[in-house]
Write a structure and sequence with these properties.
This protein starts with 6 loop residues before the first helix and ends in a 6-residue tail after the last helix. With 64 residues, it is mainly alpha-helical. It contains 3 helices and no strands.
């Protein structure tokens, strides 16, 4: 996990204020439920994100 799940480190890396990161985490709590940070769910979310990134790199661009 990048930045060891630290809101402060994440804020520095992204050039955001720490409160902005905390507000976004609160919003994710509302959307996904508070249990989304549990180890198993965090693992599954991480795998899903990585698979989506891989799909984007392997899928040729659409030509309309």
């Amino acid at each position: 996990m990048r930045n060891n799940a630290s809101p402060t480190r994440t804020a520095r890396t992204l050039s955001f204020h720490t409160n902005t990161i905390l507000q976004r985490l609160e919003r994710l709590d509302q959307i996904l439920g508070e249990g989304w940070r549990d180890d198993e769910r965090m693992f599954r979310i991480g795998v899903a994100v990585r698979l989506d990134e891989l799909r984007e790199t392997l899928t040729p661009p659409r030509v309309d």
